[in-house]
Amino acid sequence: MTRVLLHICCGPCASYPVPALREEGLETVGYYFNPNIHPYNEWLQRRQALETYAAAVDLKVIYDDKYNPRDYFQKIAFRESHRCLICYQMRLRQAAHIAKRGRFDYFTTTLLVSKHQKHEVIRDVGEAIGAEYGVPFLYRDFRAGFKQTGENARSMGLYRQQYCGCLYSEVERYAPTEVRRLLK
């Protein structure tokens, strides 16, 4: 059976790609690696939501337990306007590394379910990293399931975040306009 490693940012975002990939006949294994998520409590809530989801659908997940946002902040320092690109590179590079080590046929990401993410950038980064590691990036436009992920979260009682994960996206979501302007 063809195996795919699915980088997962949270339980709700996994709730559409996992069944979609399984319907394609792909053996799907999750991978939780998210050094961008801030603060630690947020990272932990997302992990716990994934654990709940994975148990409900019998999904094997590899958890990277090293919570180290320092790596993320060091990589984006003075490059904040490119933080999404850097974040995609960090997470997809690590996913490709695990996919290669685990002899997966492909790797992909739940980031592709969000209508707020930069799909073309994710695809380009994933394909370049896949070529570098010798594990193809499996691009799927999962955005058709974006609304369903919210419904799934509510019906399953999963924690669902209101921002992408990094400190900057949290500020963009919650801070007053004058504070958000400082980030630009």
Describe it.
This protein has 184 residues and is of the alpha/beta class. It has a single domain, classed as Rossmann fold (3-Layer(aba) Sandwich). It is built from nine helices and four strands; from the N terminus they run E-H-H-E-H-E-H-H-E-H-H-H-H. It has helices spanning 11-14, 17-23, 40-57, 69-76, 83-101, 119-133, 146-156, 167-174, 177-182, and strands at 3-8, 27-32, 61-63, 106-109. It has a four-stranded parallel sheet, with helices on both faces. The chain is globular, with a radius of gyration of 16 Å.
Summarize the structure.
The chain has a four-stranded parallel beta sheet, sandwiched between helices. It has 184 residues and is an alpha/beta fold. The mean pLDDT is 91.
